[in-house]
Design brief:
By secondary structure, the protein is an alpha+beta fold. 30% of the residues lie in helices and 27% in strands. The strands form 14 sheets. Strands 1, 2, 14, 17, 18, 19, 20 and 21 form an eight-stranded mixed β-sheet that branches. Strands 43, 45, 50, 53, 55, 57, 59 and 60 form an eight-stranded mixed β-sheet that branches. A five-stranded antiparallel β-sheet has the order 4-7-8-9-10. The longest helix has 38 residues. The protein starts with 25 loop residues before the first helix and ends in an 8-residue tail after the last helix.
């Protein structure tokens, strides 16, 4: 039996529900005025960047190109292309070392090609990177690697069968080890992280525009790659590769020295642009709000920071907006702020609005539902229109799949006002959910997103339509008149407070009509930017009246100033301001507000006195405004608004507050409670009467501290869906007004659910901050129970971070380029570049902080603070910026360079920051605690106390004593410096939930940073005293000897060595320094005379050190930890003198020195003899190994040599090697008549294991000479890992590994090592 599906008759096309255009009147507005669709309007999207390939971003409704430009303002895609090349025989040398074939069709009149280098993974979002790695591993790496591993294991198994477990042939031993090393090496490489390819970037001017080619062939075949012109001139875009679908565009600085590769840092920006202005000529239902408008994509989301905005990106974006005469900005970004309406970013934003007439629309934030959660700049900045999020019931089914009936409302998570400085915060609301286009790499055409990020572009698109109509009528608007018209015509939503909706829902047709009348009648001077509202409450200045802890004993008095502000009134004609006069009627509907009835406003600040009687206000939050009405035309509506918020909290009976909440879906229930003066924490319990359904409730609590963002004092948690009773412990502050806000999920239907809310307050008086000093005997900490109840206590101190203070190694101030010369302010932005060195002794997780700077973003006194961390050889590790708690970097053992860039216009201000210490917060692994004692004597004796089962009666006091931490407990991850300390918390409660929130900060100062002797050393040592003359003589000698290796000029070094050797003929450090200096030379720079000298010096070293005697001593030393006993045995065995016994330390040090010298001599001899074997070998040995490219690294050089078989000087190297080898063979034979070719390497193995990092490269030479490339690869990889943690260029090692893997047909590993060599060893630091 079959049945036909039910017939569906849609009430409206489904596409219409994907993007709400009806609630704001946009649909009816365009029906009435079809050409007012945003045409002639330029909208700047300050976001994560817009994908220019999207179908809705191609053309406007008039057929013009939709996207004007695509710019990455963050700098994350910048490539240094200051290096230039000229074509030779059709090729140029790329910075990767690849030969780049220049296609004949390219035109470059100057002949100059700028070249740079860019790791492709730096252009990917985290999601794209993970997907590309996963797909590549699945398609290429796994199959190739598994096949290679299986083949290696097969070869090993066959050898075991053929040879067995024993053999008299040395060759069998080496062959077995080689095969085993192949297996081990492939096994170790199975889990390596894909570092991604590295592309050469070529930039040139073709006579018309700058052109850029990224070598995505990664082989120098540029004819296979895309050539793009700068986007503004050409509109060119392309995908990086077919696999990633990441669309990019390019920009080039005027001199060609900087190339910008622009890619979206997220899908967010494309989605936002689609809402604002997408145009689909073949399917208009999918259009954005202003399909006729043009788009300017300005990426402010930095790739390095997971697409977080930076001050650098935002101020640059504002500058571009000024240069290109942008009409509307949409910015769906924001953060909470400690200081509203201040900071360098805010200054530049306000200049842009006031001086260039830009309409700045911004999301209010998604931090609701509690009050005072609006973010910057949307809810806190004068002139910016902050948009809240409106939920339309009609779209719930289509967009969310919610089948239960819901009411239209403000989304619970939409941020609420008022701002802490009294401004309302939210200006207007607009629909906040939509389907819109997303970048190609998302692998879907459209995506549903919601948030104030979506309501903001909805509003911006509406505004663009209104401005389009005004421009077509030749009417000139100002930000002031636009905002006034929008707010005065908005529709107030029923049952929604002003904190949530501002003035209400945008009604664009009403606003257009209102604004047309205002502009036609020239009601306001064209240069009026806004009315500045100033509220004075004693020492506090604000933008509105905000009373949160009211005085209920009488009225409070405020002085209010109102001043009209005019554009450029100080620089240009000030006649508009001189002639400005308005008779204003002041109105307010609240009975608890008293104010004058009229006010005469002129072009200066006029003040009035306002009194607020909070005792007459209702319980809870109340909002009203004193509005200024133009007496000449009341139909205009308010020409300025003075916001007033009063919160009257409920009081607590003893220590508990109870309230019943009606849980209507999506309806916010607020309770304001005055926190008892003694309370420090609270436990909030919600109990739902609904036990049948799986309900969800959001609990959001906030109290406000002066100049502190609400994110620092809020707690938010989604309760449910399991169970019907939930609790949450929070921090509170006595005397403050706590808002406890509860909202039920808006998707649960219209049937309410009652909820009982209980707030239990707890308190323990303790120091807000506790300072302890390492080595202190007993630091007292006093606590006192609250006056209302007993508490169970279990005092404890837990340390979480080691904080290391670093001084800058260098500080450089310099002006930045053309994009940092700001048009609106005529300011040249400078930067201070601070460089710090960090040595990590053990893998650590770190955060970077500059006190007074990194806790700010929008409110920051400087333009921007940005950190970049680099490993050895300029390899990029990670970045950090504002809010350092968000940027934890995992650093492995090694030395790191940290660069901090601080941007600011005033060079003198930057001069004052040149000595800024950097605080590195190192996360402590495991639990690190400080013991507490019950008495001073117990603390001194080291008797920690257990406080389990202890309780304090009401008001009872207790003192505990902090003990000093044992030295062996101090963290060993990073060596402390002067000024370092441990950071942690002290808690008194036994209850784990309360102790987690009721804490005091503990700073544990490390007064001593020098290493103490290890406990394992002998307690008694003897030492012969030196006289000052001996000390001086030795010091002079050591200084002279140290310069032997430092001299770069070989002639000078040779002469100086000869001088020193006459004075100190048997001094081992002198002989070693000269050997190392000669062996660090590249083959091209080596001489037969120097090689002879190395063999001679090594012979002398071995003669002086007597290796067999040293081995005998070391065998005795291994048996004992006690130095004196070791010496006694040695002297008994050798018949040494009593004089030797008197200086145990010197004797042991002498043997350590002899051991070190012996190893160095054998290293040099073994290296030379293996070079001989390599050059005789018929195997396909990598050139870096065959011709000494890795040799300098063995002897401490900072850089090896990358030798290419196709290089111009390859034959010259071969000739030089033949000369050197002839001499080496003769000299080694002279040194040891029994020498036949490999003895020195075997002797070296007596002292060190073959895979020891100090000789791993020599072992690699030995293996390569025998053609045993599995063993060679394992040794090279071992050495490469060690070089990674040092400031040493490992490119010679990595490229050798790449060549070996290619020879072994391990193509995937060859590619990996080629990329790794470029990633680890970069020509320059990554640009800021």
């Amino acid at each position: 039996m079959s049945s036909s599906p039910p017939q569906i008759i849609p009430q409206q096309p489904l596409d219409a529900l994907l993007l709400n255009k009806t609630s704001t009147q946009q649909e009816s507005f365009l029906s009435k005025y079809p050409t007012y669709d945003g045409r002639d309007i330029l909208i700047a999207i300050l976001d994560t960047g817009v994908d220019p390939s999207l179908p809705g971003m191609q053309v406007t409704t008039t057929g013009e190109r939709k996207m004007v430009d695509v710019i990455d303002c963050s700098g994350a895609g910048d490539v240094d292309t200051s290096t230039t090349r000229t074509v030779k025989e059709g090729f140029i040398d790329g910075l990767s070392g690849r030969k780049l074939k220049i296609p004949e069709k390219w035109s470059c009149p100057t002949g100059q090609y700028h070249v740079g280098l860019k790791p492709i993974f730096e252009l990917y979002t985290k999601g794209v990177k993970n997907r590309v790695i996963s797909e590549r591993k699945e398609e290429v790496v796994n199959s190739s690697h598994n096949l290679s591993a299986a083949e290696a294991l097969k070869e090993l198994t066959e050898h075991e069968k053929a040879v067995g477990g024993t053999s008299e042939k040395t060759a069998d031993k080496w062959a077995r080890e080689d095969l085993a090393c192949k297996v081990d090496f492939l096994k170790s490489m199975a889990s390596v992280s894909d570092v991604g390819p590295v592309a050469d970037v070529v930039t040139w001017h073709d006579g018309d525009v700058w052109r850029v080619c990224i070598d995505t062939s990664f082989r120098g075949r540029l004819s296979m790659c895309n050539v793009l012109g700068t986007f503004r001139e050409t509109g060119d875009y392309a995908c990086l590769t077919d696999k990633d679908s990441v669309v990019y565009t390019v920009g080039v600085s005027p001199d060609g020295n900087l190339t910008e590769i622009v890619v979206p840092s997220g899908a967010h920006g494309s989605h936002v642009a689609g809402i604002a202005a997408a145009n689909y000529p073949d399917n208009p239902q999918k259009n954005g709000l202003a399909p006729g408008a043009k788009i300017l994509s300005l990426n402010i989301g930095d790739h390095r920071l997971g697409a977080m905005e930076t001050g650098q990106a935002m101020t640059r974006a504002f500058n571009v907006c000024a240069k290109l005469n942008v009409d509307v900005i949409n910015m769906s970004f924001g953060e909470g702020t400690h200081l509203p309406d201040v900071g360098r970013v805010i200054e530049e934003a306000r200049r842009l609005i006031d001086r260039k007439n830009v309409i700045y629309v911004c999301s209010a934030g998604n931090q609701g539902p509690a009050l005072s959660t609006v973010g910057a700049p949307g809810g806190t900045t004068t002139g910016v229109i902050g948009i809240g999020a409106y939920l339309t019931s009609e779209s719930a089914d289509t967009l969310y799949g919610v089948y239960k009936p819901v009411d239209s409302n403000i989304y619970p998570w939409s941020s609420r006002g008022p701002c802490q400085d009294g401004k309302l915060g939210v200006s207007l609301v607009a629909p906040a959910a939509a389907f819109a286009g997303v970048p190609q790499y998302c692998r879907q055409s459209m995506q549903m997103m919601n948030g104030t990020s979506m309501s903001s572009p909805n509003a911006a698109g509406n505004v663009a339509c209104m401005l389009s109509g005004l421009r077509q009528q030749n009417l000139k608007w100002t930000p002031y008149t636009v905002r006034m018209a929008l707010e005065n015509t908005a529709e107030a939503l029923p049952q929604v407070d002003a904190f949530s909706q501002g003035q209400g829902m945008i009604k664009i047709e009403n606003a257009f009509n209102k604004l047309s009348d205002i502009l036609t009648n020239n009601v306001f001077p064209p240069r009026l930017t806004h009315f500045d509202i100033k509220v004075s409450d004693h020492c506090k200045k604000s933008k509105g009246i905000y009373i949160r802890e009211p005085n209920l004993n009488g009225p409070q008095e405020f002085t209010l100033g109102v001043e009209p502000v005019f554009q450029n009134y100080q620089q240009e004609n000030n006649l508009p301001s001189i002639s400005f006069e308005k008779q204003v009627i002041l109105q307010s509907t609240a009975p608890w507000v008293s104010h004058p009835q009229t006010m005469f406003v002129v072009a200066q600040e006029r003040t009035i006195v306002v009194t607020i009687d909070a005792s007459k206000a209702p319980k809870g939050a109340s909002y009203t405004e004193i509005v200024g009405i133009d007496a000449a035309d009341s139909s205009l509506g308010p020409i300025f608004r003075i916001p007033i918020t009063v919160i009257v909290p409920e009081t607590v009976d003893v220590d508990q507050y109870n309230s019943k909440i009606v849980g209507k879906s999506g309806v916010t229930e607020r309770r304001f409670v005055k926190v008892p003066s003694w309370a420090t924490s609270a436990k909030i319990t919600l109990k739902s009467t609904n036990k049948d359904e799986m309900d969800r409730f959001t609990l959001h609590t906030v109290y406000i501290e002066d100049n502190k963002c609400s994110r620092n004092t809020e707690t938010q948690k989604i309760q449910g869906p399991v169970g019907n009773e939930w609790s949450k412990c929070i921090t509170v502050q006595g005397g403050k007004t706590l808002e406890a806000c509860v909202v039920r999920s808006w998707t649960r239907g219209k049937t309410p659910v009652d909820v009982d809310m209980t707030i239990d307050f707890f308190g323990v008086t303790k120091p807000n901050s506790i300072a302890l000093v390492h080595g202190g005997l007993n630091d007292p900490i006093r606590i006192q129970a609250a006056p209302t109840k007993s508490i169970d206590v279990s005092p404890s101190i837990t340390m979480k971070y080691l904080v290391v203070s670093l001084k800058p190694q260098s500080a450089k101030i310099e002006p930045l380029g053309p994009r940092d010369l700001f048009l609106t302010s005529d300011l040249q932005v400078n930067r201070l570049l601070l460089t710090y060195t960090l040595k990590v002794q053990k893998t650590s997780e770190v955060q970077l902080k500059l006190v007074g700077l990194t806790s700010y973003l929008y409110e920051s006194p400087v333009d921007c603070v940005l950190f970049q961390i680099f490993g050895a050889n300029k390899s990029y590790v990670g970045a950090s910026s504002s809010y350092p708690d968000r940027w934890t970097q995992k650093l492995e053992k090694g030395e790191y360079t940290i660069q901090a860039q601080i941007r600011y216009p005033d060079e003198q201000v930057l001069q004052g920051m040149k000595d800024l210490p950097l605080f590195v917060h190192v996360k402590l692994g495991g639990k690190v605690s400080i013991d507490l004692a019950a008495s001073p004597s117990d603390a001194i004796l080291g008797k920690d106390s257990k406080f389990a089962g202890k309780a304090l009666l009401p008001n009872q006091e207790m003192t505990v004593y902090a003990m000093s931490m044992a030295d062996d407990k101090l963290p060993k991850t990073i060596a402390p410096t002067n000024g370092s300390f441990l950071l942690g918390t002290f808690s008194a409660f036994k209850d784990s939930d309360l102790s987690a929130v009721d804490k005091s900060e503990v700073v544990y100062y490390l007064s001593e940073c020098s290493a103490r002797p290890a406990k394992g050393l002998s307690m008694v040592t003897t030492k012969k005293e030196k006289n000052q003359k001996d000390e001086m003589t030795e010091a002079i000698r050591d200084l002279e000897v140290s310069w032997v290796q430092k001299l770069a000029d070989e002639k000078m070094a040779k002469e100086y060595f000869e001088t020193c050797i006459e004075k100190y003929p048997d001094h081992l450090p002198l002989l070693q320094n000269r050997v190392k200096q000669i062996m660090q030379a590249k083959l091209n720079d080596q001489t037969t005379e120097n090689v002879k000298k190395v063999v001679e010096l090594c012979g002398k070293i071995l003669e002086l050190t007597k290796p067999n005697e040293v081995l005998q001593f070391l065998s005795i030393k291994q048996e004992h930890d006690d130095d004196i006993l070791t010496v006694d045995k040695w002297l008994a065995l050798t018949g040494g003198s009593e004089e030797q016994r008197k200086d145990v330390v010197k004797l042991i040090a002498s043997f350590d020195e002899r051991k070190k010298a012996t190893i160095l001599a054998l290293q040099a001899l073994a290296s030379l003899e293996q070079d001989l074997e390599l050059r005789k070998s018929k195997k396909n040995v990598p050139a870096n190994i065959k011709y000494g490219g890795i040799t300098p690294l063995i002897f401490g050089a900072k850089q090896g040599e990358v030798i290419m078989k196709k290089s111009d000087n390859y034959e010259d190297l071969n000739k030089k090697a033949t000369e050197i080898d002839t001499v080496v063979a003769e000299e080694l034979k002279k040194l040891d008549s029994q020498w036949t070719g490999g003895q020195n390497y075997v002797k070296l193995l007596v002292w060190m294991a073959a895979d020891d990092s100090k000789i791993a490269l020599i072992s690699a030479k030995h293996a390569a000479a025998l053609g045993q490339f599995g063993r060679c690869a394992k040794m090279l990889n071992k050495a490469g890992e060690e070089l990674k943690s040092s400031a040493i260029d490992s490119q010679a090692v990595d490229s050798s590994l790449a060549e070996i893997c290619e020879n072994l047909e391990w193509t995937h590993l060859s590619t990996y090592f080629k990329n790794l060599a470029l990633i680890k060893n970069r020509p320059t630091y990554r640009l800021f």
